[in-house]
Amino acid sequence: MKMRIGVWVLLSGIMLIAGCGGVAKDMTAEEAFTKGNELLEDGDRNKAYKYFEAAAKKDPQEPRYSWAAAQSAPDQNAAFVHVESAWKNGLKNPSTLALLARLSFHTDKRRKMEYALDLFSQLPDSLQKPELRGDIFFRYGELDSSIALWMPLYYGDHATPSLCFKLANAYQRTGNAGKARELLEHGRRGKLLEAPGYAMLATLHALDYAYDEAGKVYEEAKARGHYTKHLHLEHATFLMAQGKLDKAEQVLENVLRPAQGDNDSAVNIRARLLTGYIASDKKEPQRLDVLREMSEGDDPVHKAERSFYDALQLIMSDSTDALESFQSFYQHLAGAAAVDLVYARQRAKAGDYERAIVLYRSLPALLLRSPTIVVELAAAQAKSGDVDKALGTLSAMHVKGTLSKASLELFRDLAFRKQIFDKSKAAQAVLEEKYSDDAGVRYAGAMLALRENKVDTAIAILTKLAKDYPREAQFEIARISAIAVKGDYDRVIREADAGSAPKHLLAGLKARAYRRKGDLAGAEKALNDGLKQKRTPKLLLEYADILMVQEKHTMAAEVYQEIMTEHEERLSSDSIGNAMLLNNFAWAQISDGNIDDQVLDAARKAHELSPSNPHILDTYATGLIKSAKWKECIQLLENDSVAAGEPRLLFHLATALEKRNQINRAVRTYREAYEMSDSSATLPLGISRKKLSSYIDGLIER
Q: Cα–Cα distance between 309 and 273 in angstroms, integer?
């Protein structure tokens, strides 16, 4: 048995060895090589490899066969073996070196570079050029070494478009954009720039906000015959960054379709995507239909392209499904500037600021530095909580001398939030200089003055605004509010009575002035008068509050009930506001002894919406205590972390335990409330420490 297995293994090995050339056993090496090329041309890469491999085995010293086998090899290991064979058999040139270095199995970048340099030393002397050695250093990130090798060549007798671009690229990657621009301008004067060089130079000017100079670079590239399809995309992106959408669309028109006889390329698809973005921004849905018809492929990328146009139409119709639709196609279009920009905006709109920031950061530098995009990114950073980074983003643009109304306004507001008042005022000063007639800028100046306690200045600005814009009620209301800040409540009441703004908008100001004067009846009347004109939720809330202060609990409850009934839809999206409203309704009823299932249900719902609010928990617990629901009260409070830190809530728990005849637990809980009662609790205990101590002693004796 053992002998038979051994023979089978031996036979299998012989068959395996023979199988390497089995596909071409009757062919010469050259015939197998020719057959492999035919199969490769027909698209049968796997079968072509078998013929190339057979040719290489028949004549291992002919590097052409090994090189062809490497190009179609099924895996890295096989490719490396074939390229190494081609190299050893004389195919020592830069292309073989680059492929061999790429396929090598060194995982460390330094080791990979050393291996590539060792291969370089094996090249014929005529090929061991300093420029190629610099290429190797550049590939592995040793940029200073590349520059040191290339600079003498460029400024010697070896200046070429390729070397000019490579040097500029190396300097830009080291962070020296100024030197990169200097090199490219030198190449421009010497007519050494081709499409990549023109693209980089235009971008460097644009990133420095020298838009006019960048525009000249694109026009020069066009005049000198270097206006490639890729440069069309760069130019269109540059125009979009400035908001020149019509001009960008004209540039893209030339690359929306492939040239006659060519297949649809990535450039064509990206051009259409950018055009789709422009059509969406210009609210031209019919243009999207045309683009959709141009995209004819059935592959995943073309299908995703058409889905993007569908998403743009959803956005134009304000559909809530727009963001969700991106999930079905984004993976196939990620990296396309138009798609990333639209997706970033949708993410920001949905409140997903972290993801939006990542998407904004992925945009091409030309777009990312656009004054519009800078403000969008900074706003997302601020809303994500990183105000410092937002200020830095805006400052990077402002320091270049590029200012917009939106960027200055955001910078002003963020600087004020961080209490950097000098910078906030400086931004406002620039706004007032540039946009002196803008009502919004003037209004912001008044608000800034108020925050700095320059009340008279604010009143003067607002008085002028109210006079200039008599139909804008907000200026009149803000003016009277500023008077209230001064503490002149009698004047507030007079101004509110004489004001031209709708009475229901002034009623709250007037009521608050009466309250400040201690005239609660006057405040109630002012609110009642306003409600006769219009029963807004804000005014109703103020009215209910003044009723509660006067202990008119039943009336207040009726007002809270009205708000919940009449404005249910508006409240449904505000869980905290709804919780407070339900709580106030329940507390008003409980305070008057009107405790039924509806009241307890309102208190329970409020607690469910805001379980960490001690005031809401107190309302619910009080309702349960007053309706003798001792067991439910114990279940509510005994393991609640909020109750554990509030002596008033512990007192409720102790009361319920006592009523359930759990005296020992009640005593311990009363003592906890007593010991905690002199701490900085949110809720007042509701009983003096002396009375509570006496009560505990009496309970123990009992």
A: 8
